[in-house]
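Table 4 source record.
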Amino acid sequence: MDNEKLIHAIERYERSWLLFALVMIVVFLIFIGYTLTGFAFYVPSAAERIDPTKVHSEGSLFANPRVEKTGDNIYTAYVVAQAFNFLPGEIRVPKGARVIFYVTSPDVQHGFYIRGTNVNVQVIPGEVGKVEHTFDEAGEYLVICNEYCGLGHQDMIGKIIVEEN
């Protein structure tokens, strides 16, 4: 009889821990859902593919890295991350501008992180990363390569200057 009581006590103990684990999983899923919706989090993805050997070729969107005004306070930036700089190295937009970034690399993996924002793209050769951001505050934002890309990695910094209207 004592053995049967012990087995039931162990089952109750196991059920308690199982219930605790299930509650924690539900809580974590709720937190993830809240973060995804509440903080405007999104996962950047490849907008398209490009042959890395033809990034700078004539006719490529990235042959002349640039920023274009494409709408009312909407800008499109074509950025090339390469050893060991960003092209263009400096981007100027007015305060309140929504900028659509298309980023690619002709050589190795790089990062495209705009400090002070939630913009962070892993730049992979052969892929064009697309991400958007609205710059609501004037100032200077550093663009940093946050993926190790070689010996000059620490010097790979660009700028986005957001000017008062």
